Amino acid sequence: MSDASFVRTEMLSEQDPPPTSVGVIGWLRANLFSNWWNAILTVLCLAVIWYVLSGLLGWTLRSVWNAGSLNECREIMIATWGSTHGHACWGVIGDRWLQLLFGFYPPELYYRPILALLLLFVALAPVLFADKVSPRLLYVTAAYPFLMPWLMWGGSIWMPIGVAAGFVLAYLVGRKLDGSVPGLVLGILSAIIWWMLWLGFPIQAEVFNTGLGEILGAGLGKSLATISPDIAPFWLETVISRNFGGFMLSVLIGVVAIGCSLPLGILLALGRQSNMLIVKAICVGFIEFIRGVPLITLLFVASTLLNIFLPPGTNFDIILRVMIMVTLFAAAYMAEVIRGGLAGLPTGQYEGADSLGLNYWQAQRLIIMPQALKISIPGIVSTFIGIFKDTTLVSIIALLDPLGLSNSIRADTDWNGIYWELFAFIALMFFIACFGMSRYSMYLERKLKTEND
Amino acid sequence: MQKSVFYCALAAAVVLGGAAGAATLDDVKARGNLNCGVSTGLVGFASPDASGNWEGFDVAVCRAVAAAVLGDPQAVEFIPTTGKTRFTALASGEVDMLARNTTWTFSRDTDLKLDFIGVNYYDGQGFMVPKALGVTSAKDLDGATVCIQTGTTTELNLADFFRVNNISYEPVPIETNAEAQQQYLAEACDVYTTDASGLAATRAAFESPGDHVILPEIISKEPLGPVVRHGDNEWGDIVRWTLNALISAEELGITSANVSELAGGTNNPEINRLLGSEGTLGDMIGLDSEWAQRAIMAEGNYGEIFETNIGENTPVGLARGLNAQYTEGGLIYSPPFR
């Protein structure tokens, strides 16, 4: 009897996988050519991409950068390539990029909006990347809303200081009275009285004849400003709103609308869920009204209707009017996004908060909002992005945002007839900003992810 | 900035007694600059250059008024307005005057409570077609697709013209002149119609202007002029006679180059009255005697302004045509300075 074994006694050595299933070829086979139908689609897609890119890249790269007018561009194109077709004339961007970024802001003061933008990032850092930077930066965040307008518009530093002091006063009074409802009202009232003292009563100066009356009429802030005029740390050259324009204007309106709409939206969302009838009615009415009208209507109200209703001679800044309208618009949408987040929370969370003995605001701050906001991040950020892009609508009411400026630039005889290059540049700027916001929201979602799914 | 927030918020509560109705001239002088409503951008008529200075045919009128009233042609705050916002901006007092290629029509003058103080450009609606189409008259355009800006008088004029001539057309509605250029060049429409000055400027920007013709028919009257509010006639007089001073200056041969010399006194009494070396015309409109001199010095007389901004040596390349002095067969005519 032989002891021939039918079982292999030695291991086979490992072999490389077949070359068609690894590396580039393997990847191609698995992802692009897994069957004949996919192969056809792949080839078709490649053809389309090639067709689009060959036109687009040729237009973008084989282009003229140094030219003072469209005709000069065309001459250079003819001299270089023998044709003007399929070549971009970036000369217009070279000529006008500062204008597209800053509008008519005085060039010697460009450092101010740039500084405001840099400070914006510093102010945002402790909010956006709370785990990475020192919480002391929150002081910058608190000061920023007062610092930014001063940097942008200039004027006396006593203005923002006075306004900030009003908020501090309201907070102190409110705290003294222990956060109760009368404390809240008294705090707001004291702030308003303070602002009236500081900024001057809106009553004609003739009413006041005495020296004290003059100071009161003009406002403490203005009186202080006259004591220290034109001294560098206290006074920045004033820039009027009409000189704001370009991308700076879009960012300004966008940042203000985004920054103010989130807290407003949270309050509106909470108000809408409130049991208090009047609060609820006001919030629902506001949200439904604002969401029921197009933004452009609100902008027209801001630019034309308000002019007619306000007393003649009232100088109510146009950019401020627009910022208020855009903020209200964004807040209404934000409220609904956050309400979605609130609705997504299980009732157990509310009951848990109650069982811990937390009061309403504590429960909101510690338990409800952190979860509701986390759920709503994608919606919040897409509202931000939408609002930022909607700022281009202000060109309809003759504010010179990038799109409005593109029209003005074309009205120059040098650049009459140029079209795509301006839009391409504007689109690129908006893309960078919006893509940045979108990537940040994805980062935040990953960071806040607690489920192990 | 914050100031205005609270002013506004409080204005709602505090009734401001009798703040209305101050004379525009006093407001302008107190403010130290003129708020002038212009177009957001129209080739040759109003556009900002790379450093943000506005220039153009309409802009020059603003500068002349500022020079006459305030003594400084740079003391102008240009407020861009769109076709939709321009009249509210004027009516609400946001601007002191409008120099924005606005057509003088019956309803605007009466119903909208505006005052057109004269005409600084006689325009009319025309048609542009590609030469290859072989069309020589607008009456051959039966069945054509027409690019037309919506919400303007041109849209109504077009409908009138085709109805009167009993031919049909298909409108391609567009929003801006720039869009129209693109649509027309992409052959989305056979014909582009707008004011003749706009057509000339548009054609001048084409790669091969010679391939397109502007048809001889002008189908509408578009007298464009500066506008002020109803009710402040003193201010209206100042703007009106500043424009007339520019027109008279061309007629009398006063240019920005020789105005200082002529201001010393000449043998022509009308020149003397205009430039203030004789008579008291300035006093009558609440200005000093050298107001017209400054207005002319700002950007030149009417002819000079025309030549620098939209004349035949500019890319816009408009001939004087109807806008020549009446002595040369045009319609530009100023009442006498007496």
Quick take:
The complex is a heterodimer of chains A (453) and B (338). With 453 residues, chain A is mostly helical. Helices cover 68% and strands 1% of the residues of chain A.
The CATH superfamily of the largest domain in chain A turns out to be MetI-like
SS element count, helices of chain A: 18
> How many domain units of chain B?
2
- The share of residues in extended strands of chain B comes to 15-25%
Question: For the report, how would you describe the main beta sheet of chain A?
Answer: 2 strands, antiparallel
CATH class of the largest domain in chain A: Mainly Alpha
**Morphology call of chain A:** flat
Count of distinct structural domains of chain A = 3
What is the helix fraction of residues of chain A, given as a range?
55-70%
Q: Return Rg of chain A in Å.
A: 30 Å
* Biggest sheet layout of chain B: 6 strands, mixed
CATH topology of the largest domain in chain B: the name is: D-Maltodextrin-Binding Protein, domain 2
> Which regions of chain B contain 5 or more consecutive residues with pLDDT less than 50?
1-21
Can you give the helix content of chain B as a percent range?
25-40%
Coarse structural class of chain B: alpha/beta
Average pLDDT confidence of chain B is 88
Write the SSE topology.
The complex is a heterodimer of chains A (453) and B (338).
Chain A: H1 23-31, H2 36-61, H3 70-81, H4 91-102, H5 111-128, H6 138-153, E1 155-156, H7 158-176, H8 181-199, H9 211-218, H10 220-227, E2 235-236, H11 246-273, H12 277-292, H13 295-309, H14 318-343, H15 347-355, H16 360-390, H17 402-410, H18 420-448
Antiparallel strand pairs in A: 1-2
Chain B: H1 2-13, H2 24-31, E1 34-39, E2 47-48, E3 54-55, H3 57-70, E4 76-81, H4 86-91, E5 97-103, H5 106-110, E6 114-116, E7 121-123, E8 125-130, E9 144-149, H6 153-164, E10 169-174, H7 177-185, E11 191-195, H8 196-204, E12 212-214, E13 222-229, H9 233-252, H10 259-263, H11 269-275, H12 281-284, H13 291-299, H14 302-309
Parallel strand pairs in B: 1-4, 1-5, 9-10, 9-11
Antiparallel strand pairs in B: 2-3, 5-13, 6-13, 7-13, 8-11, 8-12
Helix pairs in contact in B: 3-9, 3-13, 9-13
